[in-house]
Amino acid sequence: MEKVMLLRYGEIFLKGRNRPFFEKVLQNNIKKALKSFEDIKVIRAQGRFFVENYSDELAVVQALTRVFGLVSISPAYKIEKDYEKIISVSKQLMEEEFMERQEEKLTFKVESRRADKQFPMDSMAINKDLGGILLNEFPRLKVDVHKPDIELQVEIREYCYMYSKIIPCAGGMPVGTNGKAALLLSGGIDSPVAGWMIAKRGVALIAVHYHSFPYTSDRSKEKVIELGKILTRYCGPIRLHIVPFTRIQQELYEKCPDEQLTILMRRYMMKIAEKVALREGAAALVTGESIGQVASQTIESLAVTNDAVSMPVFQPLIGFDKVDIMNTAKTIGTYETSILPYEDCCTVFTPRHPVTKPRLEKIVKSEQLINGDELIQEALDNIEVIEL
Ligand code: ATP
Ligand code: MG
Predict the structure, then answer these.
(1) For ligand 1, atom 20: residue with the closest CA
(2) How far is Cα 344 from Cα 212, in angstroms, rounded to an integer?
(3) Which residues, in sequence order, are CB contacts of 322 under 8 Å at separation 6+?
(4) Ligand 1 pocket, 289 CB below 6 A?
(5) Which structural domains are found in the chain, ordered by start?
(6) pLDDT tens-digit profile of 251-305?
(7) 189 lines ligand 1 (CB under 6 A)
(8) Whose CA is nearest to atom 12 of ligand 1?
(9) In this structure, which of 75, 158, 231, 342 has its CB flanked by the most CB atoms within 10 Å?
């Protein structure tokens, strides 16, 4: 008996005339997510996708739950529209449920849909008859039409699809349907989560990382590469730009007031990222700040930082508590890598008493104490690009 995966998508239905485009992108993303499985088939039909011809169900489920735009999936038996077969598969599905759940008693209902009106029984008749047969077969079963443990689904279309599980997926929109943005990716917990959230809205990502060799080691670079790779599981290939940042930091350190160093550094990061974004066809920047988390993330600091660029800056974590960000990091699989010990843009350049309410005029004045344009150009000329 053939096992297939039934894939549902939601929000892209809302897109009216654009729907075929969204479906096409989603189908491609599904294929990419499954490219390591040989001979697998991805078919589009009746406002859904079917994935067929696979053997490792668990691995396929895992890969699909990461594809943005999918709402849920169900591993289903695909059989002929033959009532005797439907009966035998429903018994089998029930047995599987009892095995898996290890419960003495379970409640259930049968939920059938008859898209093919040629099939001799209507959905009410199937629900009733099949329910009765299952009650007879399994004395440990009881009917509960409101909150059953098991919903046995029977869909009668060109074939009959039967399943008892609906596995939630990530939701969101297919990556590539909403333009491209540049993620400022540090080695911390926040920025990978920020990138994931924006990618979830259908935005493709490039990444920019500032490296302060020799103050930050190759190990910290490897860590960022690893974080970027984890993100690619969700959002496809990422061009990671490693930007040498030491010269700018040293210049700022030598020439500018100590308490302003962090905010000045942040402004230079934004300026460089904007240039990289323009070069790469990205139309927005993404960072991982949340209000008040550290001194450089007061409302005043954020305003002065964002003022450095004219591109929109997306900060999807702005209203999140750290624990919530950490939980998302754990769910998406970046947390373990993020907490590995590493040096951030070097403690040498971190002021002892950073300003928490910077004034824009003052910061802009300090910023001009170094030869910014030249230093930015030098950094841009020495970017290392890594294709993830
Ligand atoms: P994260 O956990 O993402 O490192 P954070 O809480 O440490 O964030 P900051 O150090 O203030 O916060 O950085 C704020 C944002 O600036 C980060 O979320 C990230 O988007 C960007 N950023 C910081 N350092 C770097 C870096 N070395 N390279 C690229 N982007 C960076
Ligand atoms: Mg950080």
Answers:
(1) 287
(2) 9
(3) 189, 290, 293
(4) yes
(5) 2-168 (3.30.2130.30), 180-387 (3.40.50.620)
(6) 999 999 999 999 999 999 999 999 999 999 999 999 999 998 887 899 999 999 9
(7) yes
(8) 289
(9) 231
